[in-house]
């Protein structure tokens, strides 16, 4: 009798992993950093027990652990960030090269330093902006404002991210359509052309000198192309 009742339970636990493989999902950072590379700064990244840990370094600018490029995709993960730190995940972002002009639409006309990652970033923060997209190192504005979709930023949306907890993110980018969900609550939904392909980058934000170190942690990172 014990065997009869135990077997279905074991089968149920195994099913999500089988479905993950069959549905085209990839598990990132399960055993290490893989082919991801650190760009734009000197923050540190490591994997412990399947958890990607990003740690600030005094004096470093924003740093990203970059993979890509990708076009249409869905990305899911759980994230926990120190309250003193904010973070984000770049999508369809570009790595500036030597000789590049200033990005189209940027606030200034000066080119970015080589190795600077720029483009849309899905925000990770405890201050009510989580799940909104910020145009990192380019326009320097929220995409909900840029695309006139601020109505998505409801009180429920602003309160979706929970301090001192693991928070689930789902990011879907298909064509020019971007969506994000934090703990099941829609936090962004807009259409914006101009970035048909680009890199994903897990951010460790720069900090003021003499503060930190702070950490941001990601686990259960899953990715699939659409």
TrEMBL record:
Ordered alphabetically, the record's keywords are: Signal
Annotated GO molecular function terms are: hydrolase activity
Any Pfam family from its record, for instance, is 3keto-disac_hyd
What top-level branch of life does the organism fall under? Bacteria
InterPro entries, from UniProt?
AL/BT2_dom (IPR010496)
Q: Where in the sequence is the signal peptide annotated?
A: 1-21
Start and end residues of each stretch annotated as Disordered: 94-115
Point out the coiled-coil segments of this chain.
none
Locate the 3-keto-alpha-glucoside-1,2-lyase/3-keto-2-hydroxy-glucal hydratase domain: which residues? 23-224
- Tell whether Transcription is among the UniProt keywords: no
Q: Work out whether the entry's keyword set contains Plastid.
A: no
Compositional bias per record (Basic and acidic residues), positions renumbered to this chain:
95-110
Q: What is this protein called?
A: 3-keto-alpha-glucoside-1,2-lyase/3-keto-2-hydroxy-glucal hydratase domain-containing protein
């Amino acid at each position: 009798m014990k065997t009869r009742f135990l077997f279905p339970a074991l089968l149920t636990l195994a099913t999500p992993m089988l479905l993950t493989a069959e549905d085209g999902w990839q598990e990132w950072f399960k055993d290490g950093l893989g082919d991801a590379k650190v760009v734009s700064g000197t923050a540190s990244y490591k994997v412990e027990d399947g958890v990607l840990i990003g740690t600030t370094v005094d004096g470093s600018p924003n740093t990203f652990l970059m993979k890509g490029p990708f076009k249409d995709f869905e990305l899911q993960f759980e994230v926990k960030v120190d309250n003193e730190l904010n973070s984000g995940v770049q999508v369809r972002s570009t790595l500036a090269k030597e000789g590049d002009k200033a990005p189209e639409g940027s606030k200034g006309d000066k080119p970015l330093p080589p190795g600077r990652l720029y483009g849309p970033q899905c925000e990770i923060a405890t201050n009510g902006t989580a799940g909104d997209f910020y145009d990192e190192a380019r326009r320097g504005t929220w995409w909900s404002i840029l695309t006139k979709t601020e109505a998505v930023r409801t009180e429920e949306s602003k309160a979706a991210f929970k301090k001192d907890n693991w928070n689930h993110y789902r990011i879907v980018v298909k064509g020019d359509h971007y969506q994000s969900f934090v703990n099941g609550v829609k936090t962004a939904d807009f259409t914006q052309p101009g970035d048909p392909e680009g890199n994903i980058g897990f951010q460790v934000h720069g900090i003021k000198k003499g503060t930190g170190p702070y950490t941001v942690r990601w686990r259960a990172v899953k990715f699939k192309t659409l």
